[in-house]
Amino acid sequence: MKVGDRLAEWSLPLTPTTIVSTAIATRDWQDVHHDRDIAQAAGSKDIFMNILTSNGLVEKYVADALGHDVLIKGISIRLGAPAHPYDTLTFAGEVTAVEDGEITLKVVGSVSLGDHVIGTVRVAA
Amino acid sequence: MSAAEEARELVPADVHARITAEADRIAGYGETAETLAPYPVNQATIGTWLDAMGYDNARFREGEAPPSMAQVWTMPGLGRKRSDDDPLHSMMGVLTAEGFTAVLGTNCEQTYERYLKVGEQPRVTTALESVVGPKATGMGVGYFVTSRNTWYVDREDGTSEKVATMLFRVLKFIPRTKAQS
């Protein structure tokens, strides 16, 4: 891979089941990730994706694109717009560096409200 | 305007002084609040995670765990509480008591030394890395609180191995009311 190489985009339609099942699968029982009444009372439009899931989906996106034998060394993410049910989370990625035995990729996952997650992923070259 | 002047503009000096003093005290604990994963790394939890993520990677059905699950293993679990000496939890309590009631995760930086294996039971420590603020943000006035988690696995010879680390940053803020925005 070389700097500037782009990963194929991937879109994930979000349903209540997506948000709830991933929150529970990441062992995150914060109520705002599964109880709409509580999420709305706290000022949110609806339940929203938890951070461990945003992280996990970045891992999946990169591994699916680069091959399942890829060795992931680190994932740094910045969180932005919330990801709610009935929205679509679309990932795009690009190689930003290839050096010292590592490939660095920038990954952005966006929803209708803007960028949900902006990530930097390091993998073994 | 200097940073100190800006701080005085946003938060009363006595409040900022209390927050800074508590941040220094809690950061002084260093790496603490060691917590063992409630259950060992196991295939059922990995499989459920893969299914939920829609991720079909054979590698993770053969004894290895996805790297970003490192944090999953040491999540406290429904109805379980974090230990009272947890530095992040303690700092959150300080800020909540001073009126910074709302919280928003902003950054999560994970480094993986290696992938965990089924049967291993990681433990995690927490340290308060920094408390920076006050800052006026789009969400409201708040402090950025950064914690550092380190995951270890114990080897059979009694030594321990660092397997993953995480810097986690949240904004702890006073929510803007509709009238202010």
Give a summary of the structure in a few sentences.
The complex is a heterodimer of chains A (125) and B (181). By secondary structure, chain A is an alpha+beta fold.
Task: Give an overview in words.
The complex is a heterodimer of chains A (125) and B (181). By secondary structure, chain A is an alpha+beta fold. Chain A has 3 helices and 5 strands, in the order βαααββββ. Chain A has one domain: Thiol Ester Dehydrase, Chain A, CATH 3.10.129.10. In chain A, strand 3 and strand 4 form a beta hairpin. With 181 residues, chain B is of the alpha+beta class. Chain B has a single domain, classed as Roll (Thiol Ester Dehydrase, Chain A). Helices cover 27% and strands 34% of the residues of chain B. Strand 2 of chain A pairs antiparallel with strand 2 of chain B.
Shape of chain B: elongated
Q: Any idea of the CATH class of chain B?
A: Alpha Beta
Portion in helices of chain A: 25-40%
- Which structural category do the helix and sheet elements of chain B fall into? alpha+beta
What's the CATH architecture of chain A? Roll
> In whole angstroms, how far apart are the ends of chain B?
23 Å
- Biggest pleated-sheet summary of chain A: 5 strands, antiparallel
User: Strands of the biggest beta sheet of chain A: in what spatial order?
Assistant: 1-3-4-5-2
What's the total number of strands of chain A?
A: 5
The total domain count of chain B is 1
> Uncertain runs of chain A with pLDDT below 50, 5 residues or more?
none
- Quaternary: heterodimer
DSSP strand count of chain B: 5
Unreliable parts of chain B: none
Q: Let me know the average pLDDT of chain A.
A: 97
List the domain count of chain A as a whole number.
1
